[in-house]
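hey m, so remember when u said the tokens were messed up on ur end? i reran from scratch. heres the input so u can diff it against urs
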Amino acid sequence: MIEISKLTKTYEKSSRALKDVSLTIDDGEFVFITGRSGSGKSTLLRILLKEVEPTSGRVVVNDMDLGRMPRRYVPKYRRQLGVVFQDFRLLKDRNVYENVAFAQRVIGVSGRKIRESVPEMLRMVGLSSKYKSFPHQLSGGEQQRVAIARALINRPAILLADEPTGNLDPHNAMEIMGLLEEINRQGTTVVVVTHSSEIVNMMRKRVITIQRGIVVGDEKESGYWYED
């Protein structure tokens, strides 16, 4: 599903965020990418989203070579990815239903299809009774569930989550991770960027650890956590 070969990203003043990174993520995997702040893990996610371009190396996602992708194809490519952020990024002036529906309205999905798919997605994340609520009326965990529903509404092959539990208390954090695990069991490839060793060790999934832009660990089904 994701193939990265000798990937390097260098910023100004020769500061390297990523150095010769190579890794493969298979279809249907649940993978943590972890490391301390500034290790380069968020830069890797932004490259996968095609928000920044690598200095060198090759990235292939679902058989698409990102380095050869014409700019006009980028929006279509991004629609194949579901993305969840730490700060939820919900539309504050729209209720739960409209927040989830927005992801389909912007790509021209019909009203009939939206009326079918949004309630189904809200049931999946456990928010059927909250569809009229606005973000300020929801807990942090509920807001993240809305964000996940919005990320999944177009049935992406890959879900990328950037610190999805960063603004949540431990109870809500584990509920969200349980939901991501269930999504993965249904066939979606899930990649979670996090610096939380507690979450990583509890979930017992594959862990790719990056330190100073270099992959220093790749452990399957282990709660591996690298320390300096």
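this time it looks ok to me. The beta strands are 2-10, 16-25, 30-34, 56-61, 64-65, 81-85, 158-162, 189-194, 206-211, 214-219. if urs says something different then somethings off w ur setup not the seq
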